[in-house]
Amino acid sequence: MRYLFFIFLLFLMSCDNRSKNENTTIEPTITITVDSTKTIMNSDSLVLAAGRQVLFLLKNKAFTQLSTLFHPLKGVRFSPYGYVDTTTHNSMSGDDFLQAIQNKAILYWGSYDGTGDSILLTAAQYFNKFIYNADFANAEKSSLNKRISTGNSLHNIDAVYPGCNYTEYYFQGFDKKYAGMDWTSLKLVFEFYEGKNYLVAIVHDQWTT
What we know:
Layout lengths: L1 H22 L20 H16 L3 H5 L8 E4 L11 E2 L1 H10 L3 E5 L6 E4 L1 H8 L10 E4 L12 H4 L4 E7 L12 E10 L2 E11 L3
Parallel strand pairs: 1-8
Antiparallel strand pairs: 1-2, 3-4, 5-6, 6-7, 7-8
């Protein structure tokens, strides 16, 4: 009898364990992979902040500080009009720009719209005529990756600088007698490189015939 009772007890324990196993939910194993090479993502606010910083330095002619924001590999291209000409428009590193500002050499910057004459100016003269020719730090309108200015010249920033961001600062005009034909704008083109927005182009624009 004791032997039969022992067998019966083992049978009950076996059933109880099987019941517990059937009612137990096994959690799946989740593997989380972390990409350690992922860099900080760029954002609109970072681009806008970079634009404000460049404007502040331009307004105050803080050229030494400005040169540190030039792209370390590509430098900055200077375009006097909305169409960026990669063959004729001047491109400089930060050091080259500082040297040009200091030595007052006459440089070629492209061609005047309408006449086709060569733009031959010192860096300081070019700055006053084709970069900070208006108080763009207090522009009437500004935008991010959206063209405000209008005119007859073609605009090719998106084609020349794919994947880059640009800010635009715009004045619709200054003298009523010109009915808006004296508008002007400045575009700053940035490339995100090694966690920072670097300046790759300064594109001036204005009414062209």
